[in-house]
Amino acid sequence: MKHLVVVGACYLDTILTVPHYPGEDEKLRATSISHRRGGNGPNTLEVLAQLLHHKIPDNTRHPTTIPQPASPRPSLHLISTLPSKQSQAVSNIASSLDPTVDIDHSIFRESHTEPASSYIVRSSTSGSRTIVNYNDLPEMTEHDFQSAAEQLLSDAETWWFHFEGRIPEVTLRCIRYVRERCPEATVSVEVEKPQREGLEDLARAADVVFYSRSWAAARGYTSAAECVKEQAVRTRRDTRQMPRHAGTPSMLSICTWGEHGAALYAPAWQEPVEAPALEIADGKVVDTIGAGDTFIAGMLHGFLSVQERFADFVRILVFANELAGLKVMREGFDGLAEDVYRRATDLERVILGME
User: Fold this and answer.
1) Which of 9, 54, 206, 332 is most buried (CB neighbours < 10 A)?
2) Using CA atoms, how far apart are residues 282 and 289, in angstroms rounded to an integer?
């Protein structure tokens, strides 16, 4: 059986929608308030659980070009720093995720009851999001991760570890531990925050790297294709060929570029593969929070569901783009799997036009 372990922060978000962003010392009435669980990794797992458990109706033919839910389904695990296991916050976090997502191997700070929290002010006028974070929980250490991972890796299975990329020096030591303890595991990382030093070191250590547009633009790249091709050179390392069951080449670089789509590249390819973003009409963008996490869920779903063929990676990229586009047209993540598979025929046309 395949196992996906996602390592990253988990937040409880409070989202205030306001007519416009307030000035300093200004009083402003919000038009709505909502509460939900956030964090890159948990968001990705929420969407991925939908995709893996989506049931295709017996009377529906879904094109073979679209990644199908894997069988048997991979097991999903979250390793995150959380407050006391008996706290209301942990109960809320657990209930926000599919019951099949294991959080028991997370790191519980028993002397704390408050979770990491985000307060998000969303402007209806500009669509901007201003985020204030609060986190009093001690961050995960290398020892914390090793203790959690050791319990999981006691089974001889197929493993994929996905790291958010927080505190790069600690994350790098965690990746090295995975390499030593489980050499055949696949490792993916997110390179997201432009100001965070050490992320390229993580990229060199990983098999699959997800670059954000903001990180790429801060380094002078003007497109997703330019980013993935150049970064493949900058982070090149001597790697063994990944086992066939891993479903990835020895190194894969992926970058999203908003309305301009996304690109992916492996060193063995002559040029990057590019896929268009879903076209969204003016005024249809509702909520961009978690769009990048949704894209990653779509990519991981594809990697866990298909074999290692170039055509598969084209299909996965188109699928993930579509999924992220559908996400920004709704609040939260509910119903994404149903909607993306409902659009399977349209996706097939896009994919066949690229091959």
Assistant:
1) 206
2) 18
Mean pLDDT, residues 267-272 taken together: 89
Give me the amino acid identity at 59.
Answer: N
Between CA 311 and CA 351 the distance in angstroms is: 9
Which among 347, 350, 253, 248 is positioned nearest to 306, based on CA atoms? 248
Cβ neighbours around 217 below 10 Å, total: 14
pTM: 0.90
What domains appear along the chain, each with residue ranges and CATH number?
Answer: 2-21+31-354 (3.40.1190.20)
Which pLDDT does position 80 carry in this prediction? 98
CB < 8 Å & 24+ apart, contacts of 131-138: 133/11, 135/9, 135/11, 136/112, 137/81, 137/82, 137/83, 137/109, 137/112, 138/81, 138/109
Residue 339 has φ and ψ, to the nearest 5°, of: -70, -40
Crossing angle of helices 40-53/88-96, nearest 10°? 40
| Distance of alpha carbon 323 from alpha carbon 253, whole angstroms | 19
Q: Which tokens hold the place of 197? A: 């030093």
CA-to-CA separations, 319 to 48, 260, 336, 346, in angstroms, rounded: 13, 15, 12, 11
Count other Cβ atoms within 10 Å, centred on residue 120: 19
Question: Residue 128: its pLDDT value, please?
Answer: 83
Q: Closest Cα partner for 186 from 147, 158, 164? A: 158
Q: Nearest-CA neighbor of 67 among 313, 276, 278, 265?
A: 313
For CA atoms 216, 208, 47, 336, give the dihedral sign.
Answer: positive
* Burial degree of 113 (CB within 10 A; 0-12, 13-18, 19+): middle
Is residue 107 within 8 Å of 81, Cβ to Cβ? Answer: yes
- Tracing tokens 């097991």 back to the chain, one arrives at 75
